[in-house]
Design brief:
6 strands, 223 residues, 8 helices, alpha+beta
């Protein structure tokens, strides 16, 4: 066997080994989000829309990595009732894609991004899917034109994928331009104790006769 053939086989084996290793070590977005236990709604949406499979597939061949903003279950529960269920299948996909950047961004690098930041949802022009980022140290804010959210913590990070917890669902302007948040629940004022009128009179009467009795006893003693 010639040296050239041996060299070619070595390169092929090295490529296959590198490819299989990368494939085996590629992060799985569902496993990452299921572990903390506070992203069940997001996991269900990612599965039902097929976005999870799409993202996992892209991670295996991407050279730039991905960034995912992950709203918690509380963030979804804070939305107006029916806000998600009323969306079409396409709108649900766009909503999820609006939470994905087609590049790996570490926390310090958010300050280097230019607004509006492009997401997987597409058009960043006004009235479509603009996402604006503000960064001051480790504090990162996200503005969609509908809601303002903040990054709370890092769920997962490596050289390929960064997953950040956010306190609100990122509602894109194109889909939620008429969205109105639910009214805050006001606390009921304390209820004053009610005393039955007859009881009040009875108490007053007893007090009066008690006072008269004392007065009479004092008068008799003085005599």
């Amino acid at each position: 066997m010639s040296k050239q053939v041996v060299f070619s086989l070595s390169l092929l084996l090295a490529f296959i080994f590198h490819w299989s290793t990368s494939l085996a070590q590629a992060p799985d977005i569902i496993e990452i989000l299921e572990k903390p236990g506070r992203f069940t709604v997001l996991v269900r949406l990612l599965k039902n829309t097929g976005v999870a499979n799409q993202l996992n597939g892209e991670l295996q061949k991407s050279n730039t990595g991905y960034t995912l903003f992950a709203p918690t279950d509380k963030a979804f529960s804070d939305l107006r009732s029916g806000a998600i269920n009323s969306l079409s299948d396409l709108q649900k996909v766009q909503l999820l894609q609006f939470h994905i950047l087609a590049t790996f961004v570490s926390l310090p690098n958010f300050q280097t991004l230019s607004n509006p930041v492009p997401t997987q949802a597409g058009d960043t022009s006004a009235g479509e899917f603009p996402l604006n980022v503000t960064s001051a140290g480790k504090d990162v804010g996200l503005a969609t034109g509908v809601v303002n959210a903040t990054i709370g913590s890092t769920v997962y990070t490596d050289d390929e994928l960064a997953v950040y917890q956010v306190d609100k669902v990122l509602l894109p302007l194109d889909i939620f331009r008429n969205y109105k948040p639910p009214e805050p629940v006001s606390e009921s004022p304390p209820v004053a104790a009610k005393v039955h009128e007859s009881s009040a009179l009875s108490l007053t009467g007893h007090g009066m006769w008690f006072s008269i009795g004392i007065a009479a006893s004092v008068a008799a003693f003085s005599l």
